[in-house]
Automatic annotation (TrEMBL):
<keyword id="KW-0949">S-adenosyl-L-methionine</keyword>
<dbReference type="InterPro" id="IPR029028">
    <property type="entry name" value="Alpha/beta_knot_MTases"/>
</dbReference>
<keyword id="KW-0808">Transferase</keyword>
<dbReference type="GO" id="GO:0106059">
    <property type="term" value="F:tRNA (cytidine(56)-2'-O)-methyltransferase activity"/>
</dbReference>
<comment type="subunit">
    <text>Homodimer.</text>
</comment>
<keyword id="KW-0489">Methyltransferase</keyword>
<dbReference type="InterPro" id="IPR029026">
    <property type="entry name" value="tRNA_m1G_MTases_N"/>
</dbReference>
<keyword id="KW-0963">Cytoplasm</keyword>
<dbReference type="GO" id="GO:0002128">
    <property type="term" value="P:tRNA nucleoside ribose methylation"/>
</dbReference>
<keyword id="KW-0819">tRNA processing</keyword>
<dbReference type="InterPro" id="IPR002845">
    <property type="entry name" value="tRNA_mtfrase_aTrm56"/>
</dbReference>
<feature type="binding site">
    <location>
        <begin position="114"/>
        <end position="118"/>
    </location>
    <ligand>
        <name>S-adenosyl-L-methionine</name>
    </ligand>
</feature>
<comment type="function">
    <text>Specifically catalyzes the AdoMet-dependent 2'-O-ribose methylation of cytidine at position 56 in tRNAs.</text>
</comment>
<protein>
    <recommendedName>
        <fullName>tRNA (cytidine(56)-2'-O)-methyltransferase</fullName>
        <ecNumber>2.1.1.206</ecNumber>
    </recommendedName>
</protein>
<feature type="binding site">
    <location>
        <position position="79"/>
    </location>
    <ligand>
        <name>S-adenosyl-L-methionine</name>
    </ligand>
</feature>
<dbReference type="Pfam" id="PF01994">
    <property type="entry name" value="Trm56"/>
</dbReference>
<comment type="similarity">
    <text>Belongs to the aTrm56 family.</text>
</comment>
Length: 182
């Protein structure tokens, strides 16, 4: 299992960013995302996309993001520009994810991304603090690159269950089939 935790959410200002953390987690192979409990609007958007484009993918609010980290029975990866270089630690993280633990074949991984300044406790609670470059950029970009490294591209082949609609890839143009069209 791979879950994503979004720490911090400034209503209004962070609405799209928090939503995009959820959509990126879903599209690139994570199983679930937690948002802070003031991000109900982002939760609704991600649930709506999951209803239309398929799952499984879970979205939940939490009033205690740090509690989610404390209760997590697996490994914790905190994405931060101050962390170890992803290219230096990805093998170790993949190995833990694949070889230990639960019935899905590996140790569950919780990926934590911030919004504003992240409390130092989170750096200490993490098994790995990981930088996708040591340059400041975005939680959405960091999450996307990290998930693709973790799954080594296999997430791109994922099949979606219970989708109402499916995009038919094309060289030019836009085609979306609804479930009724087969
Ligand atoms: N300035 C804040 C701090 O010092 O904690 C971070 C703000 S940044 C816009 C929001 C989030 O993007 C961070 O918490 C981190 O999860 C992610 N992020 C930004 N740059 C990153 C990088 N180079 N590697 C990994 N994650 C990054």
């Amino acid at each position: 299992a791979v879950a994503v935790l979004r720490l911090g959410h400034r209503p209004g200002r962070d609405e799209r960013m928090t939503t995009h953390v959820g959509l990126t987690a879903r599209a690139l192979g994570a199983d679930r995302v937690w948002f802070p409990d003031n991000a109900g609007q982002s939760l609704e958007t991600v649930e709506d996309i999951t209803d239309r484009f398929g799952g499984p993918f879970a979205v939940e609010l939490t009033d205690s993001p740090q509690g989610v980290i404390g209760d997590w029975e697996g490994r914790v990866v905190h994405l931060t520009m101050y962390g170890e270089r992803v290219q230096d630690v990805e093998d170790e993280i993949r190995k833990a994810h694949r070889s230990e633990g639960d019935e899905s074949g590996g140790e569950p991984i919780l990926i934590v991304v911030g919004a504003e300044k992240v409390p130092f406790d989170v750096y200490e609670a993490a098994d790995w603090n990981v930088g996708v470059t040591n340059q400041p950029h975005s939680e959405v970009a960091g999450l996307a690159v990290f998930l693709d490294r973790l799954f080594e591209g296999r997430e791109l082949e994922r099949e979606w269950a219970d989708a109402d609609r499916r995009v038919v890839p094309m060289e030019t143009g836009k085609r979306v089939e609804s479930e009724d069209d087969g």
